[in-house]
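Hey all, quick one. A colleague (J.T.) asked me to put the zinc ion job into the tracker so the inputs and the structure tokens live in one place instead of scattered across chat threads. No bug as far as I know, just bookkeeping. Sequence used:
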Amino acid sequence: MGTTTRKTRDDFSPKVKQVLAERVNFHCAVCDAPTLGPKTGTNDKRFSVGKAAHIKAAAPGGPRYDAGQTAAERSAIENGIWACATCADLIDRDPDAYDVDSLLRIKADAEWQASTRAGRPPGSDLPALRAPTAINRAIAVFCRQEAARQERLDPRFKVSVRMAESGPSYEFSAREPVDAKLVICSQGRRRETDALRDFMHYGGDLVLEGLEIRMEGSPIFPSGGVATKRLEVTSHPRSIIMTVALDAGASMPLYVEFPGQATHGSRGFRFTGSTLGSMLTLSMTGDFSVRSPDFKLNIDLKSWERKPVRQLPHFAKLRQILQLLDRPVPVQVQCAHEGIESDFGSGVLDGREQFRLLHAFMAEIEDLRKLDTFFDLDLVMPADLGDVFRDRGDIAQLIGLIDCGKADDPTVEVSLVPEEPFAPLHELISSQKPGAIRLSQELAMRIFDRAYGPFEVELICPGAVFTPVGPANIEVGVPIRLMLRPAEGNRWSARVSGRP
Ligand SMILES: [Zn+2]
């Protein structure tokens, strides 16, 4: 049409290709496969599977294309790498397979290898490996060539090889879904068989050791002669948030959110998540066919060790949850994953037996917090939380005193010795009119093996009715026992009136 079209590919000249191939002795720079041989059935023709691949692509849109290159730079020998057809395909078509830097390194290593081999019989290049850098380089070249060789055997896998202490270690990751069969002989090994079955049903992580394990479905899987000693399988876990409604039927259920990981298998799912700074963990296993999963709640109070009792993390929330669990409560579980909520079923959580000790423990802590606040003790939790039960001393009476305003029976019994003049007391008793009273008591206590006090505690009631216990003979100097009961509209209150 008269227009000139600029060539869109900057291909290599035959001369460049020739030199590229010669510099690596016609071996693939990536997998080391020879790329040249005699053409079968001829005696004067050769057969080549080698290609000059572009390090930075020959045309826009190609892998690693660099718009900043001139056409001359693009088709220069510096931009080429000699490879077998399989490796060249991967370099030219899969942009994620190699980056520019690794191709340059592969090319340099292949040329280094060709130079150490030239003029020597196979294997005799070893003396050249005396320098540690040369050894490292040879190992790197081996690993890369070995990986490339495996990928040639089954291009569905990306293979990486590294040199471990015990020998080369191979990692295969499938580039696409691959049908493979894992044959595990666990005959006669009950525990492993159960673990395997459980993994198939619910997913998760599985480590098997010392079993006869074989993989089928690809030529790169170790075959017959290689014994697989250890197998680790993980089913892809997903991050989800499980919301548990405790006391689901009630008008105000308690919602607790557990961020965690879920896996699934052929039969159902499994979830583990925790909340409240990992103090509360939920484990759940459920079958797809059954709408009531198996719940397990675990409470770990380790983070309370050595903490001031007034600042125990998540105390109120845990107390609230435990209080709910002192009877079997209906539970409903919902899950949110990528903005989609789904119902995971419901059931009943009976924490009575499981948390029996914890209930007692929390009640104990509650008492200690009361004492701490009332007397301003600055109590600190012991390093071993079990000491809460061992070292607390007898605090029931103290708690009774602090809580006197809320007591079911607000009667306080006192014994006193009337002094002159006792007319007002006599008057109060005989008239049964309420009168103000202030009782004072000195108290000391021992908590977590430390002594506190003595404190002077006052018990005050603005209007109490006085009733004598037994015969009401009020005589100066003769002790009399009195029952003091707050009159209608009055109650006792306690306060610390002084610290020595
Ligand atoms: Zn190759």
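Adding what we noticed when we looked at it: Residues 1-5 have pLDDT under 50 and may be disordered. The two ends are 111 Å apart (CA to CA).
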